[in-house]
Amino acid sequence: MSKELPAPIPRLTVITLGVRDIRASIAFYDSLGFSRRLKVTGEAVAFFDTGGPVLGLFPWDQLADDARLPDQPRPTTFRGVTLAWNCASREEVDTVLAFALQKGATLLKAAHETDYGGYSGYFADPDGHPWEVAVAPGVEVGDDRRVHLAE
């Protein structure tokens, strides 16, 4: 019987998206205002400061290969994951959605009142990765750009 290992400190540090055209995806996320870091990687991989976990972009086929998963068929339906851009107000939600659309995003769902007392809408990036833009009770966005959750 083996000895139980101590639990490591849990961390979500990077969310990496597989993209078709890394140059176009870099331009899209740069245009949204995320700050690119480690530019020394060129167009092999891109990292953006989001105020929380790092957003990584990596060519779709190479990311699949790195994870030892098949590259094909690529999903054209919901992938079971959404990203979120939490806001401080309903007006900010509307502003972020309009801004993302202006930069090349596709509107998936217009902003609306939610059944939990919030306000949200969805856009997709050029590769179809869905982003929820929301303001919600118990979820505060601090001056540090981080989300703070009520107890």
From TrEMBL:
InterPro entries: Glyas_Bleomycin-R_OHBP_Dase (IPR029068), Glyas_Fos-R_dOase_dom (IPR004360), VOC_core (IPR037523). Pfam families: Glyoxalase. PROSITE patterns: VOC. Residues 11-136 form the VOC domain. It comes from the Bacteria. This is VOC family protein.
